[in-house]
Each structure stands twice: as C-alpha cells, then as structure tokens.
Design a protein that fits this description.
Blueprint: E1 12-18, E2 28-36, H1 40-51, E3 59-60, E4 69-77, H2 78-81, E5 93-101, E6 110-119, H3 125-138, E7 140-141, H4 155-165, H5 172-196, E8 208-211, E9 217-219, H6 223-231, E10 235-241, H7 251-264, H8 268-272, E11 281-284, E12 286-287, E13 290-297, E14 300-308, H9 313-321
Parallel strand pairs: 1-4
Antiparallel strand pairs: 1-6, 2-4, 2-5, 3-4, 6-14, 7-12, 8-9, 8-10, 10-11, 13-14
Helix pairs in contact: 3-9, 4-5
Length: 322
Amino acid sequence: MNGRFKQPPEDFEVEELPAYAPCGEGEHLFLWVEKRGVSTPDAGKRLTRQLGLTERDISWAGLKDKLAVTRQFFSVPAKNAEARVPTFEDPDVKVLFAKRHKNKLKNGHLHGNRFTLRVVEVGDPQRLQAAFDAVVKNGLPNFFGEQRFGAAGGNAAAGKKLLESGRRGGNRFERKLMLSAYQSLLFNRALERRIAAGAFARAVVGDVLKKHETGGEFVCADAAVDQVRVDAFEVSPTGPLFGPKMRAAEGEVGAGEAKLLEEEKIGLELFDAGGGETLGARRLFRVRLGEPVLEIAGDVARLSFSLPAGSYATVVLEQVLA
C-alpha cells in the first residue's frame, strides 16, 4: 500500500450534504450535530435521552461512520425538544445549531457527503497523485465498502440464509441490514466482472444506463451512440440490486446477471418475496468525485472530495493507495 490510513477520528471527516436546508418554521426541529467516535444510532440515543424523547421520535437522513468526526442533521419534534437543546451536553456529540422545519427528516434525504481524509507514510507521492487523477478522470468504481458487510463480514451470508428461509418478523432493522448486505455482495461481484472484462466505462447493448443528473434509466440499444454519453459522464452503466423494482438488463448483460443468481442457487422470486426489505434497484457502476483536491506534503497526503449518497470514501482510499 502506498500510504497508511491510521484513522483516529480526526483523520476522517465527513460532512453531510443535505437535500434541503431547514426553513425556520414548522413542527420539527433539525439539529446540526457534530459527533466524534460515535455511531449515528448511538448519537441519536444520547440526544433522545437528554431531550426527553423516545428513539422513535428521532430520525436522520443517513448513517455516518463511527470512527470519524462527522456532521449531519437529526430531526426531532420541536414541541418537546426545543427548550432542552441549549442544555444538551455530551463529550462526543455537539449540537452546533437547531432550526425548525415543516417536515420530518427521512432516510435518504441527502445529496451526498463531503470527505476529508489524512493519509500518512506515503512512499511514492507521484504514484498517489497519478492514481487520484485516474479516479477523478474515469470515475470511482462504486463498490460497497467493507463496513456494509459488518465487523466480521458475515452480514451477507446471514442475509442469504434469511432469504432462503423465507422467514419474516423479528428485528426489521437487522433483517434489512443483512438482506441489503447480500444484495450488495452480488452487486460487487457484478462490478468486479465488469472491470475484469474491460467494460467499466463502456456502453454494452443490453445495459441499463442511468443518467447522473436525473437518475433516469434506459436500456442501451446502440452502444456506439450511447458511448458518447458515457464518455461525457452524462450516463453510466449500472449493476443489479436484485428485487422486484429492479429494471432488468437485456441480452448478454442480462444473462450475466442471471448467472450470478444461478451460481448462488438463488431464484429471483426469493427477492420478490422479501417485500419492502428487498425491493431492488439499479446502482451506478461508477460515480464522480465532486470538487476533488489532493495535497501532499512530504509523506503526508490530505484528500478532499464529495460523493453521492451510498458511495464509500474507503473505496476511494483502496483505489488510490493500491
């Protein structure tokens, strides 16, 4: 590895890019919170305890890394919590400001995240710069990061067992976590094969292509025509998150995705039976780094960039430090 990411919290900063700002009026209170070395659910629990709320009262747009310094919005009922916010005290969680809004913050209500990372012991600064420039130019392979699969990496296997068993009930959050991990594992395999085939940034007939600006999807019928849009980073190929709402690829691309399930001895109908926990979607095979900056001083590098929601800064590190 061309460098080492130590990752004390101060070496990994994450700032949420909200989908909208609180308007200043309404029944809900948005809290802009900075946390250090604390998971998002744990920060939520600390907030609810001191604000006199239940865990069902608090919501957030997305989970942020535990081993980091992060800033993000939480929302709570204003009526019950607003007067108590100035008295909130916690060594690892700070409420930077609070503002009312008309709607409750829901999961997924964010554009993305801005990251700042510090890497030490860089052995070859020129190689690091070249690798970073390549990701900026060609896009980031949109793999799910290791944290998606749990501390011991067993969430995907547990998700497959749940899917095969057809069992429902239990802790819905944990079920969703495990089933999503299994969907993510299959997507990562599809992306690995795409890269191995030399088609990472290439349109292939039968692809489901997605527009970066709007999220609109369409099936590639003429690779030569669509390649122009791929080269311009207007659209990109997508991979499968299997489920009933996933748009199916066609031709050889569709056959390749079907083979993933055949190898797992899993039928698509099992994802259909998963209900709202395995709806499925198409996920971009590549994403762009927003406002990328790399600063190198001696053997220390500082990387700054933004990513869309659901993409992983740790995958950027894997690409540029390899």
